Amino acid sequence: MSNTNKPWRTLIAIGVLCGALAACSDDGDSGATTTPVATDVTAPATDPVTTDTSATELPVSNWETITAPADCMCGDGSEFSYFVREADPTKVLFFLEGGGACFTKETCGDGSETYKRTVGYDGGMSDGEGIFDFANPANPFADYSVVFVPYCTGDVHIGNATTDYGDGVVVHHNGYVNGTTALATMAERFPDATQVVVAGESAGSIPTPLYAGLAHDLLPEARLTVLADGSGAYPDVPAVNVLIGTQWGTMNAVPDWPTTAGLAAEDWSLPGLFVQAGKHSPEIRFGRHDYAFDETQTQFTALAGLSADALDQLIDLNETQIEASGIELYSFIAPGGEHTVLHKNAFYTETLNGVMLVDWVWSLISGEPLADEHCTDCTTA
After folding, report:
1. Per CATH, which fold does 7-374 belong to?
2. How far apart are CA 306 and CA 204, in angstroms?
3. 338 partner at 20 to 30 Å CA-CA among 68, 107, 222, 308?
4. What's phi and psi for 290, nearest 5 deg?
5. What phi and psi, each to the nearest 5 degrees, are found at residue 215?
6. Measuring CA to CA, how many Å separate 1 from each of 52, 318, 328, 330?
């Protein structure tokens, strides 16, 4: 397909779930080392990543803080909240925050800095940069209502278990429960939404296809788009799917879709989320952005015991695997070792093969003709 540029946007930029929806309550099955987090299908509504784990003040007056029910929680059992910005009720951005992951006693322990532990704000939401700069006319999401889902569970928003890693290290991998509770609120607050974009960065970008499929179940008339930033390299390795998935309790969070019937733990992979969601809801438009040699993805791949000597090849292999399943995935693969761009002002200036990323995203969410953009010399930004 050909790419459609938008010169006027470029000038401005330069110038400036029905099935297994888990809300907070009900019970699941126990595993050997994990206890499923409570669910209720009828309820309404880095380096290793070095994160700032302290909560900050809500910076913008039009963000509403919603304190979740008590069964929603962070990994340490502390209170979970999420945030809503009301603007155009027909267009909604459902954003999943990043912040690393943990899956061993070492990565989950008190001294570990591999994941974000408390509800706070990383990057753009607090600074009003990137896609959170709602005053910027070049921002594709300037007039969108937003549901912002913080991240503090170490399970890339898809966990549903409490896991004892030994030596007193116990983590409530509650990400799926927290996230789907916020998703239910989105559907309740914006029932007339005709366009929903599910986006995320880093750990938050991994589950974006899954949450888009769940959003389709709640708002079947809305046009769904996925924008995943910074997770394209994590491969489908059955042994790793089982090992980490068991720790997080991901099989307790598999939606009840025809496409997931009989799915085994070794098959519930991260790139496979695109496949499962795309088969469940073929109308979803999938897009992703990555840096070819993303240093954070390289380090987390190594933490999982996998080789990331050629990260760009892992990214390309994942796309090949996804598209071989019949799912179209649009990609913007930029050179260098940076990690994510959506919350940065570089979102408005990054250019690849003569195409500005901001224009590419406009086309993605507008349903316009789009082409993959891939770096040629990927080692140097």
Report:
1. Rossmann fold (3.40.50)
2. 21
3. 107
4. -145, 155
5. -65, -35
6. 42, 20, 12, 10
Angle at the Cα of 314 (from 310 to 320), degrees rounded to 5? 140
What tokens were used for 364? 């993605």
Residue-wise pLDDT for 49-63, tens only, equals: 333 333 334 344 489
| Radius of gyration, alpha carbons of the chain | 19
List pLDDT tens digits, range 195-214: 999 999 999 999 999 999 99
What three-state secondary structure class fits 196? strand
H-only helix segments in 281-336: 295-303, 311-324
Q: What is the pLDDT of residues 249-298, one digit of tens each?
A: 999 999 999 999 999 999 999 999 999 999 999 999 999 999 999 999 99
Determine the 3-state secondary structure of 34 from DSSP.
strand
Dihedral angle of Cα 283, 369, 6, 226, to the nearest 10 degrees: 30
Strand order in the sheet with 373-374: 63-67, 81-85, 144-149, 88-96, 195-201, 223-229, 285-291, 329-334, 373-374
| Token digits of residue 350 | 């990054």
* Nearest of 172, 183, 329, 352 to residue 252 by alpha carbon: 172
In sequence order, what are the residues at sequence separation of 6 or more whose Cβ sits closer than 8 angstroms to the Cβ of residue 122? 51, 52, 97, 98, 99, 116, 343
Q: Are 330 and 274 in contact (CB under 8 A)?
A: no
Between the alpha carbon of residue 288 and those of residues 200, 231, 332, 334, 372, the distances in Å are: 10, 9, 6, 11, 10
Helices 175-189 & 208-218, crossing angle to 10 degrees?
Answer: 40
Alpha helices by DSSP H, listed for 35-190, are: 105-108, 124-127, 175-189
SS3 at position 204: helix
Going from N- to C-terminal start, the domains of the chain cover 7-374
Q: Is 189 helix (H, G, I), strand (E, B) or coil?
A: helix
The three-state secondary structure class of 251 is helix
Percent helix, strand and coil across the chain, each to the nearest 5: 30, 20, 50
CA dist 234 and 256 (Å) reads 24
Helix (H, G, I), strand (E, B) or coil at 81: strand
The number of angstroms, rounded, from the C-alpha of 247 to the middle of its chain's C-alpha atoms is 19
